[in-house]
Structures are given as structure tokens and as C-alpha cells.
Write a structure and sequence with these properties.
By secondary structure, the protein is of the alpha+beta class. Helix content is 41%, strand content 27%. Strands 1-2 form a two-stranded antiparallel sheet. A two-stranded antiparallel sheet has the order 3-4. The longest helix is centred in the last third of the chain and has 16 residues.
Amino acid sequence: MTTTLKLTNIGNSVGVILPKEILTRLRVEKGDSLYAIETPTGIELTAYRPDFASQMDAAEQIMRDNRDVLRKLAK
């Protein structure tokens, strides 16, 4: 998918106008945050925080490793 995005002045900054189709594909709406990540092939725009994903992976591993302890604490 190739889409031309328009840059516009917003106060002293410059903003990008995202078409509705891209907002739908990103699953975001007005007021949500997007993250720009530099990759070897360019800039990736995502609605997911990459550091949060790694933290969740670590939390899931801890929960798996300590399943019995967590089950007893939940009682």
C-alpha cells in the first residue's frame, strides 16, 4: 500500500494528515499516541510501544515460571 501523506503547519510545528483508511489499519483515533521507530529500512509508524511489548514478554515469562506461587497468592 502506497499513500501520499500531506505535511501541514500546526502552530510552530509540522504535522502529518493521516487518511481515515490508515487510522483504521493502525486501530487508532483522535487523541491516541503513535510511535515512530527507526528500522534498517526506514521509519515505522506503530500504535504499540516496543518497550511495553518487551516488558509484557518478561512479565509473562515470570508468571509462567512462578505459576504455583501466584496461584497460592491469589487465594
